[in-house]
Write a structure and sequence with these properties.
Layout lengths: L1 H44 L9 H20 L20 H5 L2 H37 L5 H28 L7 H65 L5 E7 L8 E6 L3 E6 L27 E8 L4 H13 L16 E7 L6 H28 L16
Parallel strand pairs: 1-4
Antiparallel strand pairs: 2-3, 4-5
Helix pairs in contact: 1-4, 2-4, 4-5, 4-6, 7-8
GO cellular component, one term: Sec62/Sec63 complex
Keywords: Membrane, Transmembrane, Transmembrane helix
Pfam family, one: Sec66
Length: 403
C-alpha cells in the first residue's frame, strides 16, 4: 500500500511541476513578444518625418487664383461674395468654370496639380504613422498632447485634400473625383523615376569605377610588360657581354719604300677610321728596288683577336714579294689560297691572325722579326740575281724550320 501511494504522489508532483514550467515559459514568451512589438512601435514612431504643409505651392496657387478673381472683379463681372462658393451652392456655379479663359484655366489647373502633388508625400507618411501612433497612445507610451497634435495634423491634411477636390471640381466637371488619384499616380511615377535614376546613377558610377579599374589594370599590365621587356633586354645584354668575343681590331699595313724618308705605315682600327703613324724600328727598312703604295681599301676582318693584313708591294718584282711573304708565313702569318687575286701582279698579300689581344703583343713582335728577315732576304736576293748577269731565278722560299 505504501509503494503505490508513494508513486502516485511523485506522479502528481511531476504533473504540477510540468504545468508550472509551461506557464512560466508562456509568460516569458508573451513578455518577449510584447517587448519586441513595443520596440518596433517605438522605432516607427521615433522616425523624424516632415508633415508640414507645402507653403510655397499653396501660396502660388492662392496668388494666381486671387489675381484672376481681381481681374474679373475689375471688369465687374463678379462680386466679392462670388470668390468662394456659398453653402449649398453647386460647383457648376463657380466663377472658375464660367468666366475663366481656357489659357487661364489651364494655368490655374497646373498650379492646383502642383499643390496636390506636394501634399501627397505627407499623406503617405501620416497614413503609415497613424496605426503606430494610436498603438503608442493606447499603451500609454504617447502623451495626450502628442496624440492631439498628431490628430490636428491629420485633420489639417484632410481639409487640404477636400479643398483641392472642391477647387478641381469648380474648374472642371468630374475632375474633383479624379484629381487625387491622378496626383497619387504621378507621385508614384515620380518616385519610380527617381529610383530608376538612382539605380542608373549607381550603375553609371559602378561602370565608371570599373572603367577606371580596367584602365589602371591596363596601365599596370603595360608597366609590367615594359618592366619584363627591360629585364629581358638587360638579361640579353648581360648574356651577350658574357659571350662577347674579345674586342676585334683590324690592322692593315702597306709596306713600301719612301726614298730618303723613314718607312711609313697606315693603320686602320675597326670603328676608328684611318690614321698615320711612324713605323716601329722593325719596319724601318730600306727595301731595295722600286716600291709603290698599295691599294687604298685593303682590309682584313677577323672574328676574334687581332688581325694584321700585310701587302708586300714590289713593282715588277713579284718574286721578291713572294719571298718576303714566305718568310711572313713562316713567322706566323697566313697566305690566301689565290695569290694576288684582285691585286696587281706585284702585290702579294699576307694575313697574320693572332688568337687574343692579350697575346698579340708577343706574336706581333715575332711577326715583325719575320718581316725584317724577309726584307733582308729581298735585299740579298737582289744582289744574287745581279751576280748571275741579270738572269732572274725563282723566288726563295725559306722553310718554317728556320723560325
Amino acid at each position: 500500500m505504501e509503494l503505490p501511494d508513494l508513486s502516485l504522489g511523485w506522479l502528481v508532483f511531476l504533473v504540477l511541476f510540468v504545468g508550472a514550467a509551461g506557464a512560466a515559459g508562456y509568460l516569458v514568451l508573451q513578455e518577449m513578444r510584447s517587448s519586441r512589438e513595443k520596440d518596433i512601435v517605438l522605432k516607427q514612431a521615433g522616425k523624424e518625418v516632415d508633415t508640414s504643409p507645402p507653403a510655397r505651392e499653396i501660396e502660388d496657387y492662392e496668388e494666381k487664383r486671387s489675381a484672376l478673381f481681381q481681374q474679373l472683379l475689375v471688369q465687374q463681372r463678379v462680386t466679392e461674395a462670388d470668390e468662394d462658393l456659398g453653402e449649398g451652392q453647386p460647383p457648376c456655379k463657380s466663377w472658375q468654370r464660367q468666366l475663366l479663359q481656357p489659357e487661364e484655366k489651364k494655368a490655374l489647373k497646373l498650379l492646383l496639380m502642383r499643390r496636390a502633388l506636394a501634399n501627397t508625400p505627407r499623406w503617405f507618411v501620416l497614413s503609415g504613422e497613424a496605426n503606430a501612433k494610436y498603438r503608442l497612445y493606447r499603451n500609454g507610451l504617447l502623451t495626450e498632447t502628442a496624440w492631439s497634435e498628431f490628430q490636428a495634423v491629420q485633420e489639417e491634411l484632410n481639409e487640404e485634400l477636400q479643398y483641392i477636390k472642391l477647387e478641381a471640381e469648380c474648374m472642371e466637371e468630374g475632375w474633383g473625383d479624379k484629381v487625387l488619384k491622378d496626383t497619387v499616380m504621378l507621385f508614384k511615377l515620380s518616385e519610380a523615376q527617381k529610383e530608376r535614376n538612382k539605380v542608373m546613377g549607381a550603375e553609371q558610377k559602378r561602370q565608371e569605377k570599373e572603367k577606371e579599374r580596367q584602365e589602371r589594370d591596363k596601365e599596370r599590365q603595360q608597366e609590367e610588360k615594359e618592366t619584363r621587356a627591360e629585364k629581358f633586354r638587360e638579361q640579353l645584354l648581360k648574356e651577350a657581354d658574357q659571350n662577347k668575343p674579345v674586342q676585334r681590331k683590324v690592322v692593315v699595313l702597306y709596306v713600301w719604300q719612301a726614298v730618303g724618308h723613314r718607312q711609313r705605315l697606315r693603320v686602320r682600327f675597326e670603328g676608328h677610321g684611318w690614321s698615320s703613324a711612324a713605323a716601329p724600328a722593325a719596319f724601318d727598312l730600306r727595301l731595295c728596288g722600286r716600291f709603290q703604295k698599295g691599294p687604298h681599301e685593303m682590309w682584313s676582318y677577323t672574328e676574334r683577336g687581332l688581325s694584321v693584313f700585310v701587302v708586300f708591294v714590289c713593282y715588277g718584282r713579284r718574286h721578291r714579294a713572294r719571298a718576303a711573304a714566305a718568310v711572313a708565313v713562316a713567322a706566323g702569318g697566313k697566305c690566301p689560297h689565290t695569290w694576288g687575286v684582285g691585286l696587281k701582279a706585284s702585290h702579294v698579300p699576307v694575313q697574320c691572325t693572332f688568337g687574343t689581344v692579350a697575346s698579340a703583343a708577343a706574336q706581333f713582335q715575332r711577326f715583325e722579326a719575320g718581316l725584317l728577315t724577309a726584307a733582308v732576304l729581298l735585299r740579298e736576293r737582289r744582289h744574287s740575281t745581279r751576280a748571275c748577269c741579270g738572269h732572274r731565278t725563282s723566288a726563295y722560299r725559306p722553310s718554317n724550320a728556320h723560325y
